[in-house]
Write a structure and sequence with these properties.
With 222 residues, this protein is an alpha/beta fold. It has one domain: Metal-dependent hydrolases (TIM Barrel). The strands form three sheets. Strands 3-2-1-9-10 form a five-stranded mixed sheet, covered by helices on one side. α1 links the parallel β1 and β2. The chain is globular, with a radius of gyration of 16 Å.
């Protein structure tokens, strides 16, 4: 009998991020409609939106966080305690390890949002994976470079829509054997099959619009 596979999107934002207007209720509803079995909510430097989504659909939602370190961003899953922005990568990883979280590196080769290679090399032995496909990358080659980097070093990879709007939810995901914890995810992550496509570059305009709206109407988080 073949093993059941589930579809997982490892990188998504709610209106708890400064550049998204997606309400938790909308995020959960659209993810289900688009056939996702697990959705990791990874708001910028907080877990408020993820916790709200988890309340709405505990089976679907995994609490994560996208954390801005002094060198680049980490995208995580199974976070139980918020990790603040602005830490050195090693310190952020230490705090995540202490709570048993799964740790990946966000869009490592995106020249606008990625990591310097020297900084990336310092942490590759400390993380569980790198993001090998991010649907918000402008160019396919940036994701291909991440895939090649992971393959050469026999690293695991994660895949995410990096959704900041309703249109983007489910653009990128992985088919994986079922898992229910960070430990179980580590055991199956290398069996993942990528199902992904790039989002339109125009989605970045939506993020700028969200920031503009929140600058004038700050009470946009529910």
């Amino acid at each position: 009998m073949s093993q059941k596979l589930i579809k997982v999107d490892f990188h998504n934002h709610s209106n708890a991020s400064p550049d998204s207007l997606v309400k938790p209720e909308e995020l959960v509803t659209i993810a289900r409609k688009r056939g996702l079995d697990k959705l990791v909510v990874t708001d910028h430097n907080n877990i408020r939106g993820a916790l709200r989504c988890k309340e709405l659909d505990p089976d679907l939602i995994i609490v994560g966080e996208e954390i801005m370190t002094t060198r680049g961003e980490l995208v995580t899953a199974f976070v139980t305690e918020e990790v603040p922005r602005g830490l050195e990568p090693g310190e952020a990883i230490k705090r995540l390890r202490e709570q048993g979280a799964f740790i990946s590196v966000s869009h490592p080769f995106d020249p606008h949002r990625g990591w310097d290679l020297s900084d990336l090399m310092e942490i590759i032995d400390l993380v569980d994976a790198i993001e090998i496909f991010n649907a918000r990358c402008y160019r396919e080659e940036w994701n291909l470079k991440a895939m090649e980097f992971a393959g050469e070093r026999k690293m695991a990879g994660t895949v995410g829509s990096d959704a900041h709007s309703l249109f983007e939810i489910g653009a990128a995901g992985m088919l994986l054997p079922e898992f229910n914890s960070a430990e179980e995810l580590r055991a199956v992550i290398r069996k993942g099959k990528v199902e992904a496509q790039l989002s339109s570059p125009l989605v970045h305009i939506g993020s700028r619009y969200a920031k503009f709206v929140k600058a004038f109407f700050p009470a946009q988080e529910t």
